[in-house]
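Exercise: predict the fold of this chain.
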Amino acid sequence: MRILVVEDEPRILAFVARGLEAEGFAVDAAGDGADALERARRTRPDFFVLDLLLPRVDGLTVLRELKRERPGLPVLVLSARADLPTKLRGFELGANDYLAKPFALDELIARIRAQLRRPERAEPAQTVVQVGGLVLDLARRQARLSGVVSDLSDREFRLLHQLVEHADEVVSRERLLSEVWGYHFDPGSNVVDVCVRRVRKKLGPEAPIETVRNVGYRLASA
């Protein structure tokens, strides 16, 4: 279950992300509204925690766009704007829940779990993506190539998903590091290369992941 947390205050963002990860959720983060919309379209999270006071694109605009594109996506607004008109506007735009700051982490988690239990949240979703002979099962987090099915760890799945989403494009190490491990991970680390080696080993000798020297990696579709 993947949650995208949108919050421009780094301290609050880190606090929420750590708390949700401790509860077993996979967490993505965005610090402004424009980044939030771009990430939502690219990674298709299962749940949104959304601040309203955001740079570049304000939270209410983000909410409106999210609900226009994915009406079934659960969105919890987490904001210091606790006045009734703002709350009502949020619900009018499709917010599923609204929690005012300051807040207790336990209450936030309880509200998220309550929304995720609601049967009406379900929406049609693509569960299998295929590029050439490679099939990526998004629900089971498995890859299939040449009849061999491989289970993937969370990092392996997220890395391969990034390459699949950008098939035939060169994806830089920096971008993979940011998307899979987070902005604050050591940019000098070799974790991307190590993870690619693991994925290649699982996929076997026909793994379609190409190394682009001094830049990054490409997933070939043919």
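Check your answer against the key: The radius of gyration is 19 Å.
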